[in-house]
Design a protein that fits this description.
By secondary structure, the protein is mainly β. Helices cover about 10% and strands about 45% of the residues. The strands form 3 sheets. Strands 1-2 form a two-stranded antiparallel ribbon. Strands 3-4 form a two-stranded antiparallel ribbon. The N and C termini lie far apart (about 30 Å). The model has no long low-confidence stretch (mean pLDDT about 80).
Length: about 90
């Protein structure tokens, strides 16, 4: 079975004006699979995204990763909103 793949869309706004836009695929690691399965199955108690993190390293990311190799930025999420069409926006 193939691992799920995430899509990351980043929009940087300055006073409501779009300054930068980026879209790319994001590796979905094995450690996230139980939460994804619980969400898809309707069991959402305690299953939610709580933080966003970005890092770097010399090794390619692997589905067995459980943490960022060299965390460059890590922050708890402030809130989220869903569009009803399968997309969620995380505010941080």
């Amino acid at each position: 079975m193939k691992s799920p793949v995430g899509i990351v869309r980043i929009r940087l706004l300055d006073r409501g004006r779009l300054v930068l836009s980026y879209e790319g695929s994001n590796l979905f690691v094995n450690a996230g699979r139980p939460a994804l399965a619980a969400l898809l199955g309707g069991d959402t108690t305690g299953e939610f995204a709580a933080a966003v993190g970005f890092g770097s390293g010399l090794a390619a990311p692997a589905v067995t990763d459980t943490a960022l190799t060299a965390p460059g930025y890590y922050k708890a999420l402030d809130s989220h909103s869903e569009d009803g069409n399968g997309s969620v926006t995380f505010n941080w």
